Amino acid sequence: MIVSQCFPKASKVIDRFHVQKLAFDAVQEIRIKHRWEALDQENQAIEAAKQAGLPYKPETLVNGDTLKQLLVRSRYLLFKSSEKWTASQIQRSRLLFERYPLIEQAYQLATGLGTIFRTCKSKEQAFKKLALWYNTVEDCALDSFKTVARSIQAHYLNILNFFNT
Question: Could you tell me how far CA 33 lies from the centroid of its own chain?
């Protein structure tokens, strides 16, 4: 009330940082879900090896990571643009996306949202691109991204105000 009286021409803006953070949090949620599954599988394999009286040896990938390590060590690369990945991050991402295509799909959705904020120069252009992004999310099977899309839809006018200047 006071703000609107003092600043009658001001418009509420939800900045790109908070919108993109929501999307990258969704990517990390999917990665963490797979990590818990890998931990469970490893614990079962350790128990089975113990029952059989054999030593447990985890599968080692070509980069030297186990599945558990792959999922832990890929955390930071999933926050970065693929153009900024190091050689080892490129290799790790290939292994990760090969084994976990849902993580790749989530990563592509998150970076696609970032591209909208980076490249759109007008509210109208951003509105169209966000609508296309929203349609892509609706067609995917990632519940966490559907939540992100619903949040964007609920606040899209304030999000689009980011493109006013």
Answer: 13
pTM of the model: 0.88
Q: What are the extents of the domains in the chain?
A: 11-164
What is the phi-psi region of residue 129: left when phi exceeds 0, alpha when psi lies from -120 to 50, beta otherwise? alpha
Residue 155 CA from chain centroid, whole number = 20
- At 8-28, the pLDDT tens digits run 777 777 778 888 999 999 999
Residue type, 77: L
- In angstroms, the Cα distances linking 125 to 131, 139, 158 are 10, 22, 15
Dist CA 88 CA 141 (whole Å): 29
Q: How do residues 78-114 score in pLDDT, each as one tens digit?
A: 999 999 999 999 999 999 999 999 999 999 999 999 9
